[in-house]
Amino acid sequence: MAAAAVAVTTARKRAAPDGPCPAAAGGDKKRPRYNFGSIYDYQKLGVLGEGTYGVVVRARHRATGETVAVKWVRATRGGREDALRAAFREAGCLAACRGAPSVLQIRDVATDAATGDFFLVTELIEGPTLRDRLNLAGAFPEPRARAAMRQLLRGAAAVHATGTLHLDIKPGNVLVGPGGALKICDFGMATPALPPYPGDPCSVGTLWYLAPEQLRGSRWYGTAVDVWALGCVMFELLAGEPVFVDVETDDDLLMEVLHLGHEIDSRGVAAFKGLPPDLSQAAGEVLCGLLCVDEDKRLTAAEALKHRWFRDEDAQSPEPGDA
């Protein structure tokens, strides 16, 4: 669903741990309080797509004229409690990240008093996903990959500063807007950073982007899992394909990850297959830092942004959407 500003939930996803996301930066973990709007303030314009818990539609706010995306969670569908819990959690996480760079912005939370339906209203990004862009054009030249990673790391750093984990960062959950501006979207898996988390750590997120600590079964993971996923995205931008391919189970992926970690310790960036032969040393350092198997030694998003790869004078480069 290329134009949808809220990515549709895939079959692999399951509900994230229960609980609201923080209302704002600074450690306030209380549930955000909403003054719900009315869905009748919006005029439906058309359907953008449909996911597990409802339909995503294009709509226009009758008073302001702004065109928005609306995730419509029907109260009459099966699994209503799970759907509403996930929608409330997503709304709370988006509210906590309001104003964050490179993050999809929430506009409203509305209800239909007659039906009990719930509506999550966000800005509408009229563009493809980063996955669509990779499928169409293949690998990015290093300057464009750097520009994209700068945006994504800034977005992740802002999300993490609110005490929130996204838990499903991948190219399909990044929207490409005008001028190549990137927006991290689909906060349906997001949760406050309050371990331990219930359930199977591998049941949240998307297989190829799961961090080693999740694959090992740890319930005490933190923001480093998002950083690992960003490392996987960075490799994909540079190589044009996922770092882990032909892997179908958690156990198989863990074996691949541990092998990669050993190779990185021994050979550095040469451990990766498929990277451009002229890749800069600085880019290799960032990639290895994001994909460090030891989560305690893994770069944070904020630390990565301070690396010389982003500080170099030639770092001001075209955005992903530029030809």
TrEMBL record:
Coiled-coil blocks: none
UniProt keyword Nucleotide-binding, yes or no: yes
Name of the protein this chain belongs to: [RNA-polymerase]-subunit kinase
GO biological process: regulation of mitotic cell cycle
Residues noted as binding ATP in the record, renumbered to the chain: K71
Molecular-function GO terms, alphabetical: ATP binding; RNA polymerase II CTD heptapeptide repeat kinase activity
InterPro entries: CDK, Kinase-like_dom_sf, Prot_kinase_dom, Protein_kinase_ATP_BS
Catalysed reaction equations from the record: [DNA-directed RNA polymerase] + ATP = phospho-[DNA-directed RNA polymerase] + ADP + H(+)
A single GO cellular-component term on record: nucleus
Protein kinase domain sequence ranges: 42-310
Entry EC number(s): 2.7.11.23
Organism: Panicum miliaceum (Proso millet)
Keyword list, A-Z: ATP-binding, Kinase, Nucleotide-binding, Phosphoprotein, Transferase
